[in-house]
Write the structure tokens for this entry.
Amino acid sequence: MSVGGAPTYAVEMTDAAVRLGSREVWSGVDFQVRAGELVAILGPNGAGKSTLLNVLLGLLPAARGRVSVLGGPAGSHNERIGYLPQRRVFDAATRVRGVDLVRMGLDGDRWGLPLPALGRWRAGARRARERVQEAIAQVGAQEYAKRPIGECSGGEQQRLLIAQALVRRPQMLLLDEPLDGLDIPNQVAVTALVQRICRAEGVAVLLVAHDVNPLLPYLDRILYLAKGRAVTGAPEQVITAETLSALYSTPIEVLRTADGRMVVVGHPDAHAVHGTHHELA
Amino acid sequence: MEPQLSIDPVSDVEQLLSYPFMVNALEAGTIVAVMAAVVGWLMVVRRQSFAGHTLSLMSFPGAAAAALVGVPLAYGYYSFCVVAALVIATGAGLSLGRNRARESAATGTVQAGALALGFVFLSLYGGVLESLETLLFGSFLGITPGQVLTLLGVAMAVLIGLAVVGRPLLLASVDEVVARARGVRVGALSVAFLVVLGLAVAATAQITGALLVFALLIAPAASAQQLTARIGVGLALSIGLALVVTWVGLGLSYFTNWPVGFLITTLAFLQYAAASAARAFAGRRSRTGRQIGGPSGPTAATGASAGEPLAQSVGGS
């Protein structure tokens, strides 16, 4: 799916670098994502994964290099991007319904009254309502969408927030640790959902994750950030002892368990990255 | 003629409306109730009730300063409330995102300063105690048609302004991160809302007094939120409840001679208590219903509790 002519990349970063305060978080990042690709952004804590998403959204300027998103400079086409920030938990007292939250994802940034009921007989309003219901159905949240979001569990809130990111039919999804805090059935469900949208609707998906294993069967490519540098490639190219040792500048081993899971050992931070916290304690 | 409550409510209302000062009071009360209900609803959503209370206290030094300087009290109300709103907004730290702790600290400081200033101005003025009581607790006698018109102007400005920025303001209030990503000017909207709150407070305080304006600002809105989480219904309910409280409060004050502020506050409090009770009762009933057969979230399917390490490592995470 090409966007407005020549560019066929959803994301194109050339020799990009970013600075937070006085510290250069990462540099020399060359990275392209095509429509319909599912890319995982991995790395230890503090590597700058969320920062990368902020750069793609135009919320943080790149210190060097070129960043092009959906055919334009970063931040110019944010209405075509579905963004799921990291781990928002609405406290129990929040009295906003899930369906209203999803609706806000549709037109919450446009001027005007926040009253969807007004003008409900107009065709546009009906389409909007249908779109919201579609998005909620897509994530399987029909049963609890009408409840105040504070009363929903973590997994339910996360699904509603994904619906909010999806409701505008974005061309690109930026998901910051979408599986964080979800139990296994929910992780599987969310990953399958994301992959469905990616393939069926040709949406480019960038997922920041701490653990690659739930995503492995679905991934097209990995962008691995560590020590201020980045490596991109297919999973079997990136998650290898050679690649990661070169990246971390210290010996790293990648072990494969009998059921196909990958465990990375050797770097203190890597313990928290692949495999559960409990396993490698 | 001493006002007497009779058995026939229609004639009571007719009696009320036969006096121009009561008509003015009711008009002013209606305008103020609608404005306070809408602004208060947003205030409750944004968890800025502390700021609302502090701004309502600013009307006390504002009015005292105006009396001291010799200008109409309204100028004092509006100017002090708006300036305080800007101070709180700045203290909360805008570009870094709304930091609730810093906002609370800034608000508390402003509140302490407000009370101190008020007393200084009052003592400089020569301290007429009855006017202090009116300042703090409100009075509806002597509201002029001119004041009603000013109130109408302020209310129209506030409501039209909120109608224009309603959607992005609500998004920024509920979900700041996504709002920023969508290009909503969260900082600017925060300042704008606090200024609107200041204006609404200044207008309301002229009816209910500085100490009790908060009741009209928070109780109908909080009651509405107890009863419903829907946006349109919540706003409508908030307005309805505020109008009821104001009209009944004004009417009762006329007949019983008790202060308006006290009556409105008590009615508002009773309203909130009733709404909370209704919600608790409804909650208990629906909770039983859910436990019996309803779906209760993702863990029901597996029977494992979320985050249990054993379940996680088995699944291969």
Observations:
- The two ends of chain A are 45 Å apart (CA to CA).
- Chain A touches chain B through 56 residues (CB under 8 Å).
- Chain A has two domains: 9-238, 239-281.
- The domain at 9-238 of chain A is CATH 3.40.50.300 (Rossmann fold).
